[in-house]
């Protein structure tokens, strides 16, 4: 009886589904977080009777076959890169991307990570950095005695120093886009890495077609729809229970067969 192993694959798949949904719910308030969903595909089939098999000397063929599937497996987890809502913070170093694009961040090992989290801070040297203290590219240093920092929609950063009414331009935030954003690898700390699946990073300026605009004083909220996630969680739980019931039924049938005298 194949039902035991088939139902077991269903239970494992739904466990993965619950894990993904739980992570989404846990990050419902994480800045710039993008929800994921688990994608599944059926396993190979055991063919008991082939479709199109000849059934008579006259050449009649079987219109349908007898194919028994071996269960289900997880094909991947797909990140949903829809726009999150804008949350006003009134912090002049907080910036959100309205549209596509990612901020580039230099990691301690010299590599580059990408993030939608624009909750930036200043290092002791006045450099604009992430919450972990990693430099945001291109590196920009805010001068001492700066009274205000202004960042326009094109990502140009200007600083008002002391009583000078004319701001000093510090640089411009770059944005990075990818052909296949779901192909990026999440590594935690709101960081993603480029992979062969994502394609090469394309450096663009805010305001360029398809790049997005910069919103100063805002952060992008998570795009997790908690109500939808809870609904999906209930569906996954019910699917898990049904697969468990299939195992129970198969066990009862095997037990009945073993008791035949």
UniProtKB/TrEMBL annotation:
The record's section on Pfam families has: Flg_bb_rod (PF00460), Flg_bbr_C (PF06429), LlgE_F_G_D1 (PF22692)
Q: Which UniProt keywords apply?
A: Bacterial flagellum, Cell projection, Cilium, Flagellum
Compartmental location: Bacterial flagellum basal body
User: Which residue ranges does the record assign to the Flagellar basal-body/hook protein C-terminal domain?
Assistant: 215-260
Tell me which NCBIfam families the record gives: FlgEFG_subfam (TIGR03506), flgG_G_neg (TIGR02488)
Q: What family is reported?
A: Belongs to the flagella basal body rod proteins family.
State what protein this is by name. Flagellar basal-body rod protein FlgG
Q: State the species of origin.
A: Sulfitobacter faviae
